[in-house]
Design brief:
The structure is a homodimer. Chain A is of the alpha/beta class. Chain A folds into three domains: about 280 residues, Metallo-beta-lactamase, Chain A, CATH 3.60.15; about 150 residues, Rossmann fold (3-Layer(aba) Sandwich), CATH 3.40.50.10710; about 100 residues, Ubiquitin-like (UB roll), CATH 3.10.20. Chain A is globular, with a radius of gyration of 28 Å. The N and C termini of chain A lie far apart (about 65 Å). In chain A, about 50% of the residues are buried.
Amino acid sequence: MQDKLSFVPLGGIGEVTKNMYLYEYNSQILIIDCGLGFADETMLGVDLLLPDISYLLKKIKSGSSKIVGMALTHGHEDHIGALPFVLEPLPKFPIYATPLTSAFANEKLVEFGEKPKVETVDFGDDPIVLGDFKISFIRVTHSIPDTSHIFIQTPVGNFYHGSDFKFDLTPFDNKKTDFDKIIDAAKEEIVCLMSDCLGAEKEGYTKSEQTLSKNIEQEMRECEGKFILTTYSSNISRLNQAIIAASRLGRKVCFVGRSLIKAAKIAQRMGYMELDKKMEVEVGDIGKHNDKNLVLLVAGSQGQENSALARITNGEHREIKISPKDTVLFSADPIPGNEISINSLIDSLSKMGIKVIHSKNSESFHVSGHGAQQELMLMMALARPKNVLPIGGTFTHMARYKELAKKQGFSESKILLIEDGQEVVFDKEKISLGKKISLGNVYVDEVSEEVVEHFVIRDRQKISKEGVVVIMAEVDAGNGQMVGNPNIIVRGLSQAESSIINRRLTKELPKAIRGRRGRVTDWVYIRKNIRETSERSIFIELHRRPLILPVVIEV
Amino acid sequence: MQDKLSFVPLGGIGEVTKNMYLYEYNSQILIIDCGLGFADETMLGVDLLLPDISYLLKKIKSGSSKIVGMALTHGHEDHIGALPFVLEPLPKFPIYATPLTSAFANEKLVEFGEKPKVETVDFGDDPIVLGDFKISFIRVTHSIPDTSHIFIQTPVGNFYHGSDFKFDLTPFDNKKTDFDKIIDAAKEEIVCLMSDCLGAEKEGYTKSEQTLSKNIEQEMRECEGKFILTTYSSNISRLNQAIIAASRLGRKVCFVGRSLIKAAKIAQRMGYMELDKKMEVEVGDIGKHNDKNLVLLVAGSQGQENSALARITNGEHREIKISPKDTVLFSADPIPGNEISINSLIDSLSKMGIKVIHSKNSESFHVSGHGAQQELMLMMALARPKNVLPIGGTFTHMARYKELAKKQGFSESKILLIEDGQEVVFDKEKISLGKKISLGNVYVDEVSEEVVEHFVIRDRQKISKEGVVVIMAEVDAGNGQMVGNPNIIVRGLSQAESSIINRRLTKELPKAIRGRRGRVTDWVYIRKNIRETSERSIFIELHRRPLILPVVIEV
């Protein structure tokens, strides 16, 4: 067998979320991250996407490969959220992460009725040996504490897995990027830097988290009612900033919303959030305090339908009533596709006369967790890799990253722009593109936490755009002829269209069936005939393609 | 009858589009604008919204009021697009607009098989007397030429209808805002300024169109293939900028896409666009020219599914093939809700290695047509109205406009924030809120150009999120009991959910029906019973609310 390393992204390239990457050395597989994807509004009624692991399963089941371990870079859902789904069908293997990441990941497993499986490593620990791989965690800054890059040593050379980061030189928790360790890795020579590229369109540097504290405190001071801040529940630093401002201004803090309460609890338990017990108020006790003395940290910054913030806004929250003197601060960027829901929340609040601050037009109340152009180029300059391969962004971001890499002196052939499922093969002499694995969309429904088949989504899309037509026909089993008129139900089309469909099919269907006489032996054929005839008629008449459900009743 | 004027917005307040405003003086009604609304992605399969004119129709049909005339402020779809739908059921009345606006509006009517009905007025013309109203058109700048404000004189006082504008001091066509006429209007005393408020969140001034010319030319110079620019078809100035750059660089121009070709034709005919015939290339002749000598002005800047740009990107355009040397410039802001489609277009182009420039992160290639804070305050300062009433924005924009008005010295009671359908009554002494008209959503389907009933949308939303369950039950007419098991079709739900529904309903439905014995007289009741039982069972079991279609077959 040839001595080579294969890099196979199962998710996270050409998209921002659903991060999962395989590093294969001969028969050994190292996995980095195991994240969820977020469905956009075209994926009706589905909320989450999983990486498609059929390629991995096949390799394991056939016995041709073995998973030697997994490392998680940080505690965001798009890097750890798929764990309960992905681990279940796989054999056991060790999983490593830094303290907060490991706490979030284990909490997730427990929530799904499994045991905690992620082992905690500290940034100072020795490299971990996993088969022929050796991995080290390098501290970087991002919008969640304990984020790390992974330096991966293999017999074929060294790789630097540089997922989500920015170089915040004054991070809120004062835990700075470990530049020394990056330089040390560079000295060992890096074959390829896999780099975050989400900020590649933004000029300059991303502002430090620190810059927000003053602005948040100022708004809190001016607010004469409840001060309500909403952000991602994992944005521990942002929550800490609000807590510090609250304590300075003598306000008490209340966490609202399941995900946020959970995250705050973990952060407090692990010492990432300091909050005097006397300063915390339970949701049920809010009524006992003057509005002016309260800060609410509320889940739902993406405008999610059933989130705490949406319920508060719509007057459906049992304990929390909004008042015109309150201020609501959205301290999070909208995930593309959520703009409508977020705008409509903001608008409802504005209509009630409430002061709403959102980060759309300024960096005063939210900064990105991803580095901008200067930081991405600095990463290249520090790591001095032979090749670069952008991850965690769309093709638009990758194209811009390529321009940055060119400015840093990388020639075209050293900048690897690939797609999900595209294997890249590194051997001692050269780099080549390997096989292309075809990846499917795996959907999860958030209510049932069950994987949704692809055809279900297709049906929903079709119905939602074009409506549905149910056709019930009674057919005489003896002679194959239709008895009476078909019974037709049309939904999702206008009344005028319905009556056209009714008229037309009542005329056409008996005719279509008439062609085939004699005893019915193949009921499937009759159903198919009805469906195809109806599809054609409706398309000719109305230029529509509703979902047709033929029901044949045997008489 | 009391001497009073009523302002009644039928659309355009609390929303950006669907502009239509009534000014009623006793029994006389003056209408300003008649625009379409754009559906967002929650309104499945519908593309357009119309203002609900039932209030107007009732007044006209009862003979209690008469429409004395209509004025159109500018040629954008959200101000003129509803004309063919709205005029049809109404009696004839005169309609006025400035030259380009009137050309666009008449083109629209002709397209719908009607006669041109809009009369052209010039900015220099005398005021037009319409019953007891006197109206004057005042030139302002916006993203389409010939945009105007309307000064409305009534026996109760004067009103300034200041819809969509910015104060571009160096407009591309050099036709500047007529500040003199605004000042003259102010001298007559203005009771209320109805003002555009869309830019109220943006600090400072909106940049001039002029600032873009240099950047567009620079990108065109550097492009080694086809230079493709996409913008709203009505953005005549932007198209002109591209044409001038093309002529300087010796490139030929080709218009691509039905809406854009139409707009360019009107603009050329009326002298708003100068293009040497020798410089224009028909789409069919594109193959005869070197890519480097071409500029394509293409429709589809919002990522619309069947637009020219989408077809070019997906390789489905017959004449135009995209090449990696091409540059594509998006020179338009995304309308909220279109981000996903636009991002996906940009991403597909980036993936092919094409240089894509979009205005998301910079004002170098697109500027808004709406004035920012300084301009909105300047408008107040120039018009010196007694009251202000923001229009053409969401409540978020209105709330910010209110802050600006306060800075300009307006007291709380002089800043009127209202909703669509809210009548404001102005009489000589005071201003008061009048009746609240309830307005429905009127949907138009773009394919059939037919109004879509509201329940159709509701059904589609329900089905798209929760699926559909068709239940066929054979019921014995003699004793009201179910014969055999119900036949159940489930769509849009997973297989696991389907089998649960099947199992549960097969058990529950016969039981539910059993309660009522004896000859069936009320089939509707049986259907209702089946529906409600099924809804309850399915919700208890799965926490879902699919659309239930019960079908009872009498045996």
